[in-house]
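Sorry, I am new here, but would you mind making up a protein's amino acid sequence and the tokens describing how it folds?
***
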Amino acid sequence: MADAAHDASFDRATSSGSAEKFDKCCDGLSDWVSGLELQEVNRGFCGDRRNLMRFAVARRGNLEGARKQLEKCLRWREENLPADPLRLGCEACEADRHTHCFFSLGLDIQGRNVVYASAPRAKMNGARDAVLHMARTLELGWSHAHVAPQWVWVIDFTGFRMHDAMQVKTSVAVMSTFGDVMPERLGGVILVNPPTILSIILTAIKPFVDDRTMSKVVRVKIRPGEDLSQHPHPSLATLRPQQQGWLEKALTYKPLPGQLPPIGALDTKGLHFATGAPVQEL
């Protein structure tokens, strides 16, 4: 069995000087969940102390705040996730595999799942379906012990339109969900060639997103044909050479559903849905 991947949320717990406080909060959460009749989808989740610790860290050791957030998370998981990770999928993409554009490019040099997204390359970006697709994609990755608990989100703005910019509801739903039910999971957000109008979206979602999450969002300009291995921005340095090469090529494709380079050279085993993933036609 592969060793469990490093969890960066524990770095925050131990480096802040509040390790004892976080441990005590985590113990309190463990005691609380032990008295619940958990559904199958949440039994293993609550049995893993690392998951409980993320809520303790997110709420800075405040037990009541962490308990309320965990309670909300468990309810969301019961309503939206199947108990068996192998059954994770996207119903909308099973009907039309170009519905969404959110899929894994494999693991970066830190073992984090790197997920590519593009609104213009998706046929639909409705809030609920988009959030479910994203959450289930990430859960599928985290069902493997070798995948780090944090992930990296690469958002390609090639072909971004006013129509995409006005879908603020989806942006709020995505960021709120990840903040509420997946605390301490986001490793970074790389905005590739963002337009000026993006400021409208960031301003709209800022009240719904904590400062720590917003601090992980970076903007990166990439010129056509630019060699990403030589790019000065540090966020791109954590990508593997194959991922950098794929992104270089993707930026040259037309921003339309289904128009992306093949991912055969990337190591994405176990990170895609068995059915329904838009990546199947790449």
Remarks:
- The chain has two domains: 8-80, 91-281.
- The mean pLDDT is 87.
- The CA atoms of residues 159 and 255 lie 5 Å apart.
